[in-house]
Amino acid sequence: MQNQTQAGERFSPFLTLSRDEWSRLRDSTPLLLSEADLAQLHGLNERVSLEEVEEVYLPLSRLLNLYVGATQNLYEATHAFLGHQSRKVPYIIGIAGSVAVGKSTTARIIQALLSRWPNHPKVDLVTTDGFLYPNAELERRGLMQRKGFPESYDTRRLIRFLADIKSGKPRVEAPVYSHIEYDIVRGERIVVEQPDILILEGLNVLQTRMSTSGRPMTIFVSDFFDFSIYVDAPEDLIRGWYIDRFLKLRETAFRDPKSYFRRYADLSDEEAVQTATRIWEEINAKNLRENIAPTKSRADLILAKGAQHRVQEVHLRKI
Ligand SMILES: Nc1ncnc2c1ncn2[C@@H]1O[C@H](COP(=O)(O)OP(=O)(O)O)[C@@H](O)[C@H]1O
Ligand SMILES: CC(C)(COP(=O)(O)O)[C@@H](O)C(=O)NCCC(=O)O
């Protein structure tokens, strides 16, 4: 039994660091953040503690900075070898994980921290929800209750978007999704113009699914990633974060006259918890179990959170 465990540990592709071990790795980072910078980061999401930024996200930004620098050198070496003029190719970081685990908050913190390093000041952020089919198309395909499932995305369009970015196109556009309207915003675009780093955040970014036609896909979204992060937490905690966010939105975004969820704005506390729990169970938990959690081991780094979004452990791919 013991031998089996030892063998299992020996062959794990991940190195596991406790929070303390991980946070010590920041010590040799020249601290690029002033108190004012930290305060500004806190402004991204007032629920994120500064301790968390310093102990978890600063070491992460140091690691990413080293990786980006190494990749930039590698590109230059290839271009020198080929005798080409080197041209800028954005470094792409994918961030995966469940609905409500904190992907977009993590992405925004990483964006803010990475843009402070001198060799990659321009850091753009795109979310995959823009590549969901519009509601009209989801309705046509009978997929309105499957939003976020692999088949609800125009994966080919997402792959074309990434291929354009990696081929060095000066200007690439992505469609935009509105959480208020619960739909793609017609005519609105986010423009990506050769950033140093692009962060792509979404539920499905590590998936290797079949195409809707049933033919195997020969290329995956993650083929374009230079680095990927999976934000992880126990399912019961994520359910709680989903319900909390729903209650908060009931006070704010759901009151917007344009909100698809206007009808939820006047729910009592108890009704709101019941509604959020139902959506969680019927859509998001199912998607997490079937399609998202199985992709965790494909990430280069896993942030394992506990209560209050506090990162407890970091698993870093070593091979
Ligand atoms: N590091 C964090 N500390 C505290 N609260 C957080 C943190 N990350 C996310 N949250 C909260 O958890 C909820 C889900 O986060 P969000 O980033 O919107 O998730 P996702 O993009 O995965 O759906 C939000 O209410 C957010 O404020
Ligand atoms: C828009 C989402 C699919 C997330 O998309 P992502 O940016 O991760 O691709 C998700 O937030 C969502 O709306 N899910 C449908 C069920 C729900 O309303 O929670």
Automatic annotation (TrEMBL):
Keywords: ATP-binding, Coenzyme A biosynthesis, Cytoplasm, Kinase, Nucleotide-binding, Transferase. One of its GO terms (biological process) is coenzyme A biosynthetic process. SUPFAM superfamilies: P-loop containing nucleoside triphosphate hydrolases. It catalyses: (R)-pantothenate + ATP = (R)-4'-phosphopantothenate + ADP + H(+). Its EC number is 2.7.1.33. One of its GO terms (cellular component) is cytoplasm. Pathway: Cofactor biosynthesis; coenzyme A biosynthesis; CoA from (R)-pantothenate: step 1/5. Its main location: cytoplasm. HAMAP family: Pantothen_kinase_1. Belongs to the prokaryotic pantothenate kinase family. This is Pantothenate kinase.
